[in-house]
């Protein structure tokens, strides 16, 4: 996969050279380039923003600067499997399912806005040539899109073949294909006793079916307690008797609290 990130603070993206993403770049799994948007400004002050039409607080990033930058980065290539990602609090929620969709693209370009955001005409025009996804990583506002870009790149990168040492990790994580709609169960490692807190005995039993059942039950309990809205979205036909027993137990506990 090819990934380009455009920002007025390219150094903000330095963490992409670390950990799994950095290794994937070194191994050639990902071709990653970070660009300074100001390189496409045309005045001596390298201006990328201006006052908003209609008045109001703050500044808006100019569409002409962004347009020149995008055109040069794309270099006239086939855009069939290119996705422009624009992080914005006004976007649709970025989820594991969206990350999985983006992982099937050949190329991602991430446009990191600042100030009051990017002139909407840049996004609208780009959408006539390629797929555009305006995405939000949560219901809060950041100073710019760089943090969101880091989130998107890491979430997508770990789904690419050859990035994770054990591909099963992605399937068993929260929201993974092995636990669709659920958060992950608790994890434990050595020592077996930590300050009086012991590992659940089932995990030491060597009984694989019992361990799998325990993990499933704990995942259901944790999701019901922390993300009850996800439980409401589960398909009842995909729940077995043991699943329903756990969820009934959680409903009873909520009624008593």
From TrEMBL:
Annotated SUPFAM superfamilies? alpha/beta knot
User: What reaction does this enzyme carry out catalytically?
Assistant: guanosine(37) in tRNA + S-adenosyl-L-methionine = N(1)-methylguanosine(37) in tRNA + S-adenosyl-L-homocysteine + H(+)
Residues the record lists as binding S-adenosyl-L-methionine: 113, 137-142
Output the GO biological process annotations, alphabetical, semicolon-separated.
tRNA N1-guanine methylation
Question: Which Gene3D superfamilies does the record match to this protein?
Answer: 3.40.1280.10, tRNA(m1g37)methyltransferase, domain 2
State the InterPro entries in the record. Answer: Alpha/beta_knot_MTases, tRNA_m1G_MeTrfase_C_sf, tRNA_m1G_MeTrfase_TrmD, tRNA_m1G_MTases_N, tRNA_MeTrfase_TRMD/TRM10
**Subcellular localization, per the record?**
Cytoplasm
Enzyme kind, highest EC tier? transferase
- The entry's keywords: Cytoplasm, Methyltransferase, S-adenosyl-L-methionine, Transferase, tRNA processing
GO MF annotations, alphabetized: tRNA (guanine(37)-N1)-methyltransferase activity
Enzyme Commission code: 2.1.1.228
Q: Where is the tRNA methyltransferase TRMD/TRM10-type domain?
A: 1-233
The GO cellular component terms are: cytosol
Family designation: Belongs to the RNA methyltransferase TrmD family.
| Subunit details | Homodimer.
Quote the HAMAP family the UniProt record gives. TrmD
Q: What does this protein do?
A: Specifically methylates guanosine-37 in various tRNAs.
Protein name according to UniProt: tRNA (guanine-N(1)-)-methyltransferase
């Amino acid at each position: 996969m090819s990934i380009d990130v455009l920002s007025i603070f390219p150094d903000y993206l330095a963490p992409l050279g670390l950990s799994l993403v950095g290794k994937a770049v070194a191994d050639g799994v990902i071709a990653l380039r970070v660009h300074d948007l100001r390189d496409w400004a045309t005045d001596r002050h390298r201006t990328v923003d201006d006052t908003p039409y209609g008045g109001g607080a703050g500044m808006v990033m100019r569409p002409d600067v962004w347009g020149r930058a995008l055109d040069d980065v794309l270099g006239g290539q086939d855009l069939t499997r290119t996705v422009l990602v624009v992080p914005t609090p006004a976007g649709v929620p970025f989820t594991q399912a969206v990350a999985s969709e983006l992982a099937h693209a050949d190329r991602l370009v991430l446009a990191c806005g600042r100030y009051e955001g990017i002139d909407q005409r840049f996004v609208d025009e780009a959408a006539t040539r390629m797929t555009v996804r305006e995405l939000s990583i949560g219901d809060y506002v950041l100073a710019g899109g760089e943090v969101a870009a880091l989130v998107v790149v890491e979430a997508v990168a770990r789904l690419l073949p050859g990035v994770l040492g054990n591909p099963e990790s992605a399937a068993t994580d929260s929201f993974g294909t092995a636990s669709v709609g659920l958060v992950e169960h608790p994890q434990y490692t050595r020592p077996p006793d930590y300050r009086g807190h012991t590992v659940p005995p089932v995990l030491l039993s060597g009984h694989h079916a019992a361990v799998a059942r325990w993990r499933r039950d704990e995942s259901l309990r944790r999701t019901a307690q922390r993300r009850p809205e996800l439980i409401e979205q589960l398909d009842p036909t995909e729940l077995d008797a043991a699943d329903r027993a756990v969820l009934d137990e959680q409903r009873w506990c909520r009624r008593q609290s």
